[in-house]
Amino acid sequence: MNKILTALLLCAVLPLLFAPPVFAQGDTQWVLMQSTLTYHMSHPIHQVYGVSHAAKGKGVCHAGECDFLIAVPVKSFNSGDSNRDLHMLEVTRGAQFPMVIVRTRFPEAATASPTIYADLDVQFAGVTAHYQHVPFQRVTKGNEVQITGTIPATCSDFKIPPPSFLTVAIKNKIPVKVDMTWRQK
Amino acid sequence: MKLKAARIAFGVGVLLLLFVIANPLRAQMAAATLSGTITDSSGRVVADATISVKNVGTGQSIGTQTNLAGVYDVPNLVPGGYTVSVSAGGFDPKVAKVTLTGAKGQTVDLVLNASPAQQKIPANKSPATPPANLPNAPSSTTTPLSLQSLGFAPSQTQANTQLQARLDKRTHMLKVHQTLGLITAIPMMAALITGPQAKAEGENGKTITEPTAANLDFHIALGGLTTGLYWTTAYYAIFAPKIPGVKPKGAIRLHRDLEWVHGPGMILTPILGILAYKQENAGEKVHGIASAHGTVAYVTAIAYGASIIAVSWPIHLKFWERR
Which residues of B117-126 are buried (b: 16+ CB within 10 A; e: fewer)? Predict the structure, then answer.
């Protein structure tokens, strides 16, 4: 009798021991594998493209909602001219606020859509700007997902005084092109 | 008459120089920086806190936010009384008073107390809540995501106010360098133009070479002004703070390489000019090494112009680069 009870107890308890934790049920995680972020700065005699491949990001989907965090060091942007990059670092207060941080949350169902509309919190130069309904194109490549889009950033969004050259200021718009490859863990 | 014109040109140049240099320096000297760290009652830093610094005397306010290390920094404040207001989601707002004296920086660290309704929000998360009107607005209340979880080293994410101060000073000095450099080009061009007409009068009071504008004094004044402006311009580039670990790259390299041509040129040109002046005043034709004055001046001016073009050239028109 005791043996039967013990066997029943083991049958009941063992599956619980090997079951995944309750909080992890349904969770999916995404990791940013590679990225190219390019800002475009426009001046009457200069068109500047600053590129960074140093972004890191993670995403967690839980209970039907996905939270993503992407960050990139300000000083990792390379425009091909060290003097200009240092000036950009200064004017964006990149030593004081060394990271550009993007947070977003959207429904998990949206991750399967060819176009993801995301509301972004972008923290840059000590200011957090909100961008609503920014479209990103999603293409699945094997077990990876490529996300492309453009964040319509402006200098004034982040209270950055537009840098000037030869006494002429750059245009206020500094759109940032995003090309990221994510992999589900 | 011509000597008077030369003096006026020289005087205007000196005044212009003083104005360009003195104005930003005065502004810089008066500026102070207010900085500090915002933490909660348990000592954890509060990121994204909104800081408002209000000048009690003028009523002007400057806003900023704390970074991920909870640090804020408000530069370029004139001395006087200020109120520092801090607010962050989940915390009671806090106000502190501070008096800034001179150009010294001052630190005001503040501790926020969690408001009862929001005490469940972890302090290491952004306390900012998304706008209510956004259906899928970002939220930080349930996400275990942080910069550390992304793999960034603390040294990458922490504020470096000393580096920011170096960058600020560097930019300021290079802006003066740029402005003075462009101004210098004007008397330099004028000196080049007046050079061929600059002939001294002979001992008998007549010009040596006929016909001539006999404009030597004016040329000397322009040359002197150019030399003074040039070396002042150079000072602002040479003594601009260097940023460790940054190697010159791009157009700035050519700009700097050309210094090795126009720099020595700006030493040689006045020396050769003085030699030529002495020979002319002695009633001699300019001869020997002094006769190279004009050639050296032209080479110097061409190198100087090229160094300006090197950093001004529309980079999107670089035909040798594929985008």
Answer: eeeebebbbb
Structure tokens, B44: 């954890």
The residue type found at B130 is P
Domains and CATH numbers, chain B: 2-24+163-317 (no CATH), 33-155 (2.60.40.1120)
Cα separation of B13 and B253, whole Å? 30
Contact A67 B139 (CB under 8 A): yes
**What is the structure's pLDDT at A163?**
84
Residues of B in contact with A89 (CB under 8 A): 167
Chain B residues whose CB is inside 8 A of the A115 CB are none
Tokens of B204: 């008998």
In terms of Cα–Cα distance, which of B293, B74, B242, B166 is closest to A159? B74
Determine whether the interchain pair B72/A130 forms a contact, defined as Cβ–Cβ distance below 8 Å: no
Q: What is the pTM of this model?
A: 0.65
Percent of chain A at pLDDT exceeding 70: 86
Residue range B214-221: average pLDDT? 78
Q: Which domains does chain A have, with CATH numbers?
A: 26-184 (2.40.128.110)
Residues contacting residue B75 through CB under 8 Å, at least 6 positions apart: B31, B33, B164, B165, B168
Peptide bond preceding B75 in cis form (omega within 30 of 0): no
| Helix/strand/coil percent split, chain A, to 5 | 20, 50, 25
Is the Cβ pair B160, A107 closer than 8 Å?
Answer: no
* Nearest chain B residue (CA) to A119: B137
Q: Is the pLDDT of residue A16 over 60?
A: no
Which one, of A180, A184, A182, lies nearest residue A53 by Cα? A180
User: Of A180, A182, A148, A178, which Cα lies nearest the Cα of A37?
Assistant: A178
Lowest mean pLDDT among B162-166, B291-295, B312-316: B312-316
Helices (H), A48-173: 82-91
ipTM: 0.78
CB contact under 8 A, A90 and B170: yes
| B311 with A45: Cβ contact below 8 A | no
CB contact under 8 A, A93 and B164: yes
The pLDDT tens digits for A92-121 are: 999 999 999 999 998 888 888 899 999 999
**Helix B216-238 to helix B2-30 angle, to the nearest 10 degrees?**
20
Query: B121 vs A184, which has greater pLDDT?
Result: A184
Q: Are the C-beta atoms of residues B88 and B128 closer than 8 Å to each other? A: yes
Chain B residues in contact with A58 (beta carbon < 8 A) = 145, 149-150
Among the partner residues A60, A71, A104, nearest to B144 by beta-carbon distance: A60
Q: Which residue of A has its CA nearest to B173?
A: A87
